[in-house]
Protein 1
Amino acid sequence: MAEAKAVSVDQVTIEAYEKAKGDGVETVFDRVSRIKPCPIGAGGACCKNCAMGPCRVPAPKNREETPEEKAKRTGVCGATAETIAARNFARMVAAGASAHSDHARGVAETFLKAAKGELKDFAIKDEQKLYQLAMDLGVEIDDRDLKDIAVEVGEICLAEFGKQEGEIIFLKRAPLKRQEIWRNLGIAPRGVDREVVEMLHRTHIGVDQDYENILMHAARTSLADGWGGSMISTELQDVMFGTPEPVAGRVNLGILKKDHVNIIIHGHEPLLPEMMVIASQDPEMLKYAESKGAKGINLGGLCCSANEILMRHGIPVAGNFLQQELAITTGAVELMTVDVQCQMESLQQVASCYHTKLITTDRRARIEGAQHIQFEEERGLEVAKEILKMAIDNFANRNQDRVMIPDESKEMVVGFSHETINYLLGGMFRASYRPLNDNIINGRIRGVAGVVGCNNARVQHNSNFMVMIKELIKNDVLVLTTGCSAMAAGEMGLMTPEAALEYAGDGLRSVCEAVGIPPVLHVGSCVDNSRILMAATAMVKDGGLGDDISDLPAAGAAPEWMSEKAISIGEYFVASGVFTVFGVTWPTTNSEAVTKYLFEKYEDSLKGMWAFEQDPVKAAQMMIAHIDKKRKELGIDKARERILYDMEKRRELDAA
Amino acid sequence: MSKIIASAAIRGAHKIYDRAEAKYKEALDKFGPKQEVAFPETAYFLPIIYGILGIEVTKLEDMEQVFKIAKSLLPPPVREKVPLPYLAPALDAGMATLFVEEMELAIRYVEEPDFYLQGEECDVENGKIWLGAANDIILRKRGVEFVDGTAPGFAAIAGACDTVEQAKNLAQELQEKNLYVFMGAEHNGKKMAEQLVEAGVQIGWPTRLVPFGPGIEDVAVFALGFANRAAMSFGGLKGGEFRKILIYNKDRVFSFVLALGEVTDEWYANAAGAINWGFPTIANTPIPEVLPTGICTYEHVVSNVPIEEIVSKAVEVRGLKVTISEVPIPLAYGPAFEGERVRGDDIYLECGGGRTEAVEWVTSAEMDEVTDGKVELVGPDITDVEPGSKLPLAIKVEVAGRKMQEDYEPILERQIHHLINYAQGIMHIGQRDIAWLRVSKQAVEKGFRMTDLGKILHAKLHQDFGAIFDKCQVTVYTEQEEVEKILKMARDAYHVRDARIEGMTDETTDVFYSCTLCQSFAPNHVCIISPERTGLCGAYNWMDCKASYEINPTGPNQPVEKGEVIDPVKGQWKGCNDFLYQASRQVYDHYNFYSIVDDPMTTCGCCECIAAVLPICNGVMTVDRDYMGMTPCGMKFSTLAGTVGGGVITPGFVGHGKYNLTQRKWLAAEGGIKRLVWMPSRLKEEVMDRLKIRCEEVGIPDLYERIADETIGTTEEEIYPFLEEKKHPALEMPPILGE
């Protein structure tokens, strides 16, 4: 059993873990000390892509290897340590891209059905965004019926997955120079599925055995995620459920309510959660809950499903990845739904120790022992009500003596879509990214960092996030965050405007105070990292900060990453020109050449590159150093001179 | 926006909304929904609402939808702890505030038609000082100063100073920086405008110290409405192009708000509104600051600035570069004092104006004949005469230099009027031998002497025209005999000059001059000025441009080789087209100098007159900007200017100067003056002498009498019988359209 204090920097998590321990329930924090990571696999030295292996090709420890030794370090088929490390890395990208894109495909299918009017519970909520999307996709608007436009948008988006030729359409949203880089390198993705399939093919035994070639296709595959699948998902979800705007929310296990029916919505897709939100506000359901002795219905989110309904409705968040079991061990949860991604199989084991029902809702993701209720969008609200009723019925089974809900939850202001940032910086009439760029140029804001990604049980829960984000904002770097990272920031109290006063450097603080924003902006779920790409592009297009994303004083990080999705996200950030630092562990350390390629050579072609640093302070410093380098290249490293305009200067201004 | 400011602004916006809405409902009951509402003499409706929303409010009932929009813009109050972002909501609340205040003031124009004075001047004697909304005539006249840089922007002052003395000094400092001062609201029961009256300072548009009204809403609405109209009339922007209009103002109209005194919620709401235009607020009280940049060019709110430093701070915050004239005289000096009057008991000395002889003459001399900086008085000085005296006056300015040409003499001479007028307490009217000078008692008290006239001219001519001469000396004569001698020499010189200019033609001139002075406001507009097509603003003729180019070779007046003739009748040259293409930022690749129908020259917003084709009469009309009535083309001047201004080519319409009307090439392609069927009577009178000469030249000596004016009619149908009766030549000419 782990030492309680060591598991997390979050007091709530520590308390909850102690409670679980007291109940004799095993959680991720216990299992992690039982299972050591495989040292061969960790560095990408194991190839199990054929039945002649698995072949292990680790480098000698603590000494230089001789050229002879190096030459012998190959698999049975002759694949070098380089090829093997690159293949493993590339397959992670493919798997991560698949996760986002398969999610997105589901969204697109639902969207198309909704557009056609086949789903009574789904509709077009954000018409403005639909029009914008239509324009970006080249869909004619004119006097056309909204429905027709939506159907065509849905069809085009769905077709992106199976497209064989041409380019993913959203690439055109990127800065022109970035598009040029992709085309010149031949890595503009054609269709989402095609790049993933090709990635898997190339990494099959005896196909692509040039690590550079493999890694360039990994970049292409990741772009099909970031500018393809993930972006499609974000855009269509916004059109269906509304583009996020600033909203107040709460986070951490303390959001569970002693006298309410508590339902945890876990997973990554917003479809069922949206229905659950509506169902939970239904007067009949509320009445039903009261009839069962509850004061009301309390929804709490977990992982990115939580982010989706937090961003759009302010529904409270119970916690991030490493807190999923602890939500149940509070003893106060009647029911937990899961859909896809990042839901631990152990949930059923933990739930069985309490009255909690675990419901799987997606045919792609079932858990042995859990009850399955298939979410069918045709009867979305009905399914939601069915699940809700089940939870209410289960309220009576709660053993209040075994309930321990931590007191604390933190307030947050969330909902920062790239569209809303545009509005927030200038209001209805002067909306633009200008104030952001301006204050970057004048140095109040040193740069922008995307801090994203998972929790990883191999490091103290939330600690890397806390340390890194505080270090960044202290140095006037504005942080955009998604996924579990966002929740961590919320739990640390960094997502309030007041946090700027306490933690941010003077410059960043003054901007946060002026706009009324936290120094750490919650941008959404992990598919919503595409919003960061759009925000970066908006900054480039507003001018004054170069003409490519790689020119921006910006950096990315995932200091507690663990999933293949994180690698895909990191890769598409790098392939979009962003310097990206990962923590915890690095999957190619067994090959110096591959690591060097990712960390250095990528910069020559992609203008973005990876880095690995376990120490979150050092990692933050690397990001800041990169930001400073970019500031210098832009010539904004020195204090800007105040330009006073006379009439002659005014004449030089271009036409308004 | 700090939370305190945003919270206050949003609170203020709610209060103002409620107040205005109540007023609106009351007005609906009292006057009915069809009641007309308007600001005086403007084509821009309620200009904030029209500019930002594109809604034309002409009746009370039109306000309904604007109230709805304003309401939708009103955000909820800012939460004390963990607030949602408040900058954008506060800016929106500020905009909503301005919308409803503008409607409130429009209702005031209905309820109390005499609340504001009409026109430029205050009636201090009768205690009526509030001028309210500037009409379009004022807008255009003053707007030109914004365009040419004589006035870089305005200071909107809310509140009052602690003492009358401070108010006087503040106003003077702003005047010296050439800024317009718009005033409203009160602090501690005092109002800035009243403080100035108390200090004996002349207020009104002529001195650039404009008291809009007693409330914060007066200064905010009328100032920002002025700004919106500047963008629409000079920037060629249309109502509803809110983003462009606001950014136009941020980039080109260098204005700011001075908050003097306690900043109330209502003040905050208005200040938040002004930030949308890029106009920051500088306060003399310790309110919170908003220093990050972005909506404004630099800081948004700067506070706790002592009143003595507030102007220089404001100018810095707004990012404005002001050049102050240093003139070695004991009086304040600057364009803002140009409109100041000296009259009645204030007059110490008067010269000219029909009471005595007064003449001004600039002449070139050999280098060794001129001692630079020498100023001599021949005759009695001001101290030698009693208050209320009259003296004859001759001012002879002798200039010398390698680059000096005789052609420049009239240009330098024309400066004398405004250069002398810029001195505080000195009034100057006229030029040449019809000059008229008044010196006030205050000026004499401050130590003004007759030689100061020379010192002004020496200093300013050097500053502005130093590039074309090296030395300058001035002699001021106040003795009858000497004055008469100078008068004779001057008259001979005038005669020679006039004859020479008259003889210049476009055909005999190879180099024309561009004028892109107005590009600070109308970025695509390009004037090309030839001897026979003077600038449409009336301020620049070919010779002026030539001199200006000599003075500043990289300035807005560039030589344009007219090059190969493309169309001698319509007036099109290859060299001019090439220049136009580049200078209009590739928007236009050709235009015709002498045609109104076929691709006429672009028109900025500052034209003196606009000509328009009248198809039924088969002729053209022209109207000057001082004429407020309807014209036969169906539009008043302001509407016309709104349609054709902003640097666009509008076939059938063209802007031109008054002088150009009587030049030979005026609309020559369509038949010139013979096409002129209508013009306002006052303009007709003003240009009568020259116009009659032109009529003779074209062989129809009584053409002058055949031109209709507003006393005949203001529609084509009304004037047509008159033209028939008078046998106006236009009726017999080939069809003006569709040739």
Protein 2
Amino acid sequence: MNKFLPVVFCFILLSSLAHSQDFTYGENSPEELGMKKYNIDTAARAVVLNEYGKARISDDSEGNIRLSLDYHIKIKLLTTKGFDKAKVEILLRILSNSEEEASDIKGYTTYVDDNGTHQTVELDSKSIFTTKENKYWKTVKFTLPNLRPGCIIEYKYTTKSAALGSFPSWKLQDDIPKVNSKYDVHIPAFWNFNVSLRGPLKLTKNTAEFEKECFTWYGAKADCSFMVFQMDNIPAFVEEDYMTSPKNFMSAVYFELSDYTNPNTGQKIKVSKAWTDIDLNLKRSDYFGSQIKKKDQLKPYIAPVIAGKTDDLEKAKAVYAYIQKNIKWNKITSTGSENVRKALDSHSGTVGDINLALVAALNAAGIRTEAVLLSTRSNGFINKLYPVEDDFNYVVARANIGNETYMLDATDPLLGFDMLPLKCLNDQGRVMSLDKPSFWIDMLSLSKQRKSQTSSYNLTLQNNGKLKGTIVTYYNGYEGYEKRTAIKKFNTQDEYIEDLDERLVKTKILSLDITNLDSLDQPLVEKMEVEIDAFDNLNHNKLAFNPFFFDRITNNPFKLNERNYPVDKGMPSDDRFMLTVHLPADYVVDGTPQGVAMSLPNKGGKFITNFEAVGNTFTFSNVLQFTKSVYEAEEYPYLKEFYNKVIATEKAEIVFKKK
Amino acid sequence: MKLICTTVFMLMLVTLAKAQPNYDVSLLPKELMPYASAVVRNEEISYEVKDLDNVIYHLKRVVTVLNKNGDDEGSIEVSYDKNTSIKYIKGMIYNEFGKPLTKFGEKDFSDNAAIDNSTLFADDRFKFYRSATGGYPYTVEYEYELRCKFSLTIRDWTPISSTNMAIEKSSYQFICKPDFLIRYKQLNLDSPVAIGNNTEGLKVYTWQALNKKALKSEPYSPSPRYFLPRVIVAPETFMYGNINGSFNNWEGMGKWINEKLLFKRGDIPAATIAYLAELTKGITDPKLKAKKIYEYMQEKTHYISVQVGIGGYQPFMASEVDRTGYGDCKALVNYTKALLDAVGVNSWYCIVNGNHDYKISFATDFATMGQANHVILCLPFKNDTTFLECTDQKIPFGYLSDFTDDRTLLACTPQGGKLMHTPAYGAQVNLQARKAGFTIDNNGLLTGSINTVFKGIQYDNREDILDEPVSEQRKLFPKLYPAINNLDVENYNFKQDKQVLPSITEDIKLNARDFATTDNGKLYFSLNPLNRTGRAPRDVRNRLTPLYINQGYTDDDEITYKLPAGYKLEFSPMDITLETPFGKFTANMVIEGDKLVFKRYIQLKQGTYSKELYSEFVNFYQKIADADNYNVSLVKN
């Protein structure tokens, strides 16, 4: 079982009078004051001594129902590197009818002053600044004064929000360790939330109690459930290379609204209980279903694009290319669209605008196409314990033609048909159609996407010591996309060639042909005539030659002794290289390295080299293949050792000598 | 009859074209196309000084975006703050034939705060609009007007502000009353200023740039201000916040800063003064006293930027920094100066252009505020002038790093401004000297130790790692020595020497299995696993700019390998010597009994060299890269 999967809470409410409590503000024990190092983690730059939060839905004094969070934290800053923890930024949303507010901010720093005595300086209210970041967000920022290594900072504040459904999640784990973190939650029975715990760590305390009539609202009364989530001795989260979003692995408690009862009317509103609810919701919504239904509106746009085409695949490709060209992505990620037609007319749109326009346009062209909601790699995994619409942050199209399905993202004009950007290759996606129940698809294992590159070199060693000949490289699948992106960074092909020639200092490019640059579904082919400065001259009896003259692997990307999280590459890869060298007539191959063939466990990959010499011609071939998208932490030592062998092998040289 | 009709029609077309400029992309001059992803068709920038606290900036710009790479040139970003307000913005997008497509205005712009991570508060904001059409090329025409409530600083005119952008026409006008005095300096422009009067009787200075080809990026080139067109304008009298002022040289500017911006900002509490007296008790040497105070300041403060009040050029009160323990560069320098004053050590507030990539000196003949972006402190000891970087909490006393070394700055003294030059760290000073003793056994196992001294600017190579906890340091070693695969550091030690010219000594004891590869009775290993220069810089055909080396350095490596018994070299040993005007490289290996001794020496000299030397420079680095890649091949005796 995957130890990183979230778990859902099932509570049995016990009636109790015992109340959880915040820790006392402004009280520091001699141990805390005197602490020089955190014994459990001596590498810690800072340690959270205590953290407490209390979230509740209640009646504020002005006759509104508000979701409020009292936040309180005390941190010991052990070194100057820990000072970043004294910079506090409270992110507040600007909602359509009200802005979220932060209030009752107070804090202090206790430090040892110049004379060796403990001093306490209060946070000055004049040093608390509010900035409107843009029309959606504002921030309240402050920093605790008089920081010194060894000081203790403590601060607390309250935020209030009218967005009652967005119950604050609680990050138990951070990049510094915590002695204690406790979250008290009071939820009136009018609201029901699904609660889940993510991360491999266990809660120290987790209780749920019953509070009688804790919520009243114009005569309506409700009992509350009072939940406590507490964890002691929480280790710091240490990020590793080649992992997806840390969010997938950090311990935290999440809340998702499932239903609520309007306290004014007594009407019960289901938010999300089952996928059928979400399906219905999305189908009816202005930002999703209504946009996909706009196929009739898009028909006039699509008609000339598919005119004369009879084959569905051909039609689909034409529509895809049309949307790619006609709506430029404005760098905003979304799952919905305000108006797909407006996006087409203004030539600018979000991910939702572009790909829902694509779904509608393909349907307008008679191709059955669904929208697929997904979460990008940086956004983290999807919670599959219960349906949560907000977990998704991206949408793509899935076209059904004959017995095949094709995944499409039109936000990048260089992506080929049936290709998704790496950021989308994450976890699972939910296929949403207007007429059938939604269902999951695996974004990684079902993906046909590969990165593959095949090069063949055919070179002749000249008497002046230069290697002259042809290099042909095929860039397939995602490799082709990446190569096209690199070429298109230049205004013209000539500028690309000039740059390449300038970079390959020892190689003179005599000519270069690129085929299929704009035929995105074909492999990109680059054919170069080159002259390489291999040797200064041929006045030696013996010469050595390393076949990996362009991209020799010399550094092992996997350097850790211990690995905690999976290595996520997103897609399999395959690199093939074949080199033929013709030596001058008076030379003969003296020695070739031994061929190597090795593989990763569970068919995870292979590395094969082969040398062959016949007279004054030798051939070398090499395959480096990774067949999996994700390697578990347990496979890390194998990957590391695999690379060790690759590096060792690529050092070997072919030797040839004068007859 | 027919003929006349055509003529009339054509005349009409000409008239129309005059009323509405033609943005048809096919009219673009062919010679502007190479390397261009966008072309500025026409740009008109003007400043009009209505009053010292009412200056109007007007910009009109028409730019054709040729492909995706030029999209940023077609996007519009307008910065403003509490002293600069936007009066209007409007614009239009045209298709490739010059036909209007989309009209836009201020309401279509997003409004954002422009605050970086280390800033707690600043009122800098920007409005942003991204142009889009259904393809390329397209043309964006826009204009906006700003009202500035100050006249101390006027933005420089830099018609070429990025690579891959060509200019058909760009012009700059400065408009003021006939008796309003300005100073100006033009750099790298083809034609001189034209001075005239407009219909309202105001004086108009006009500069323009025509038909400038797009530049491509050239590695190792000097700061763009040394080769790109630029006009700098400075009013002789001005207003800043509610402070009036005037200056026309560096001396006057330094005096103004000292008397107006720094006036009464140096008070610190009596308790702090008393503590400082206690702290420096018994120290008579003013330099040692200053060092004590400097280290006290470093321990007590850290960098955070808060731009309130008139902000910009005026530091926070020293008392405020004393209370909160934070501030930006101005505030921390002003505070340190106040602390030094309290113990009777004189110091000067210095403005400077801080930059890691270029040493940018102030133009000695032309004083403007805009040339500075940083503040440091000067201790004017006789024959021992010392500069202090007050914004870094770890940097040694008197050491400047490559951010402010070797450049002309302005010291603001009570007697007026004084141009001074900061110390240069030469190629010999920036030394990394390494000695390693390794043993390789029959199985390819490497064991041994490395001793390395990092000095001068190369001190910075290891400064950061010192702050890391042991567990992180251990994780960093494989990244510092990536060419030793399977590196296992048995133990290590760092010794830090925080002198004016600081150094760090690193000692490592290590082993690495499979360092050498055995194959067909041969043993291969990489000769230089410790210090690799990496890829040579990109060659540049038809280079336009000189070769610029910002920082010289010396690396001196010696590795002694004890080889397993019974092997000999397969090839004759490597021996390379390169001597060039900009540097020197030697690498060689010799066999001494069962030992192989590898020596590598590289010295690069800072300076500006003729562009003709650039290909030799690329070649120099390529030869080094080749030598660094050398594999030793041993065969059985």
